[in-house]
Write a structure and sequence with these properties.
Layout lengths: L2 H23 L3 H6 L3 H30 L1
Helix pairs in contact: 1-3
């Protein structure tokens, strides 16, 4: 697996776990670690970009499977 894919998967996992903590315990791990400032906004932005990257990779793989 490429390093970018590992990083994207890791950030998506962190984002998903954070949303699970928010839903279950009303606890935001990212905000607790980084505060309400730019650090947490940057992490949220990176999680979103990584999700889009993974979505594009999945669509690319699906199109390749259909064409073969």
């Amino acid at each position: 697996m490429k390093k970018i894919e590992v990083l994207a998967s890791l950030l998506i996992l962190i984002g998903a776990l954070n949303w699970g903590l928010i839903a279950a315990f009303n606890y935001n791990l990212i905000t607790s670690l980084l505060g309400d400032g730019n650090g947490s906004k940057m992490v949220y932005g990176l999680v979103g970009v990584c999700a889009l990257y993974q979505l594009m990779q999945m669509m690319k793989a699906r199109m390749a499977a259909k064409s073969s």
